[in-house]
Amino acid sequence: MTRVLLRILAAVLLLVASAAIGWRVLAPAEQAASAITPYPPEPTPTFGVTGRLNQAPLIVDRRLRVYAAKHQVRADGPVTARTMYTARWSFRRWPAQVSAVVASGATVVTRWSDGRLIALDARTGKVSWRADGPDAPGYAGHRTGAATVWTPPGLRLAGGAVVVTQGQDLSGYALSTGERLWSITVPAGCADGFTTEGGAYVCATGVYDAVTGRPVSGWPAGPYEPVGCVSFVCPAFRDGSGHGWIADGAVPRRVAALDAPGSTFAAGVVVATTDAGISVASVDGTRLWERPGMARVLGGTPATVLLLTPANTLEGLDARTGVLRYTYPMAYGTDDTHWKPGLYQVFDGYLAMERLSPEAPEDPESPIYYLTLDTVLVTVLPY
Q: Can you give the residue ranges of the Pyrrolo-quinoline quinone repeat domain (predicted)?
């Protein structure tokens, strides 16, 4: 009898211990490790490909690289470091997943699958504010996190506001404090839109002021196609009739040169891809220059149009004259350029790009989708 009781007692103690361990492992938790060193200065410009990383960086304040993993956001630096360094700060939540990350100045806004919005001070990694929002999709960044930080779903910035979308729910929060400014229900089809330099949130079925949530008048009929987007904000668009507009103010400006399908707006000019090559015009339609041969338009810096050739060579051409300002292969060290471009982002003086296998399948989870382990290149762009 005593042996039976001892066995029962041992089983109970084992069950209690297992439950305690399970709770500690699986219970919701949050861990933050703040920076312990001073905020770094902007790095000395070193033009060309400076690093090769295994995750996609969000360049923040020209000083830090911020990365998104499934349950964690972390930062390292300097931006020009040749590889990933020990985290300067990190912020981890469990079991919530990182859904999207955006940044403005030294503020990093993170969205999580449980609906939480958490802003981090990029200088320290400490929480600046928290807010409740609608449930969000789970982590969809695959191995590099590029889709989470370069094309963040349902999270946009405009006019000092953070705009969050989920289904037909659309809400705006103050970037500085996290205060909810407005919340509305929008028609079906407004699931995920884009923001403009003029401070509007634009989706297929409507246009809304990002600070007030009120519908904006004076716009042509949609649906709208974003054009020339850089760091979550789009300077131009095409309307439902295919007509091009620049959206740098409250009321968009008509630009007929943007009517050509596939044309984009970069460095203050209209860039179109034709069968003969690249054709560039001013916003009034005046033809400025042409470049023969095929190339991919990546975007631009304030005075330079960025092109990627089929041989994966980067070209920077003067936006007004077409004069070649610089060119170099998109390769680090002894790497070759035989790869397929993946997702990319042009930041404030930086370009980061995924390299995919030449025969990459459609599935990003495939073991042969990315070129190498360190598949993301970072390059500093001359101004």
A: 89-188
Provide Rg for the chain, Cα atoms.
Answer: 24
Q: Are 312 and 339 a contacting pair, CB within 8 Å?
A: yes
| CB-based contacts of 175-180 (< 8 A; 24+ apart in sequence) | 175/104, 175/107, 175/109, 175/119, 176/107, 177/129, 178/117, 178/119, 178/128, 178/129, 178/130, 178/131, 179/131, 180/131
Beta strands 233-234; 194-196: pairing state:
parallel
Report whether 348 contacts 62 (CB < 8 A): yes
Q: Is 154 helix (H, G, I), strand (E, B) or coil?
A: coil
The kind and range of the H/E element at 219 are: none
Q: Which of 88-97, 124-133, 229-238, 271-280 has the lowest mean pLDDT?
A: 229-238
The larger pLDDT score, comparing residue 252 to residue 27, is at: 252
Q: Residue 273 phi/psi, 5° resolution? A: -100, 125
Range name among 7-16, 183-192, 298-307, 318-327 with the lowest pLDDT average: 7-16
**Could you tell me what percent of the chain has a pLDDT over 70?**
93
Q: Structure pTM?
A: 0.90
Which token pair is 142? 């695959």
Q: For position 14, what pLDDT does the model report?
A: 53
Give the chain's mean pLDDT: 91
> Which residue matches tokens 């703040």?
34
Please provide the DSSP assignment of 255-293 as one string: -GGGGSTT-EEETTEEEEE-SSEEEEE-TTS-EEEEEES
Q: What are phi and psi of 271, to 5 degrees?
A: -115, 125
Residue 316 has a pLDDT of 97
Spell out the alpha helix ranges (H) of 88-240. Answer: 146-149
pLDDT tens, 238-261?
A: 999 999 999 998 899 999 999 999
* CA pair distance 59, 65, nearest whole angstrom: 5
In this structure, the number of other CB atoms found within 10 A of the CB of residue 279 comes to 18
SS3 for 331? coil
Structure tokens at 209: 């002021």
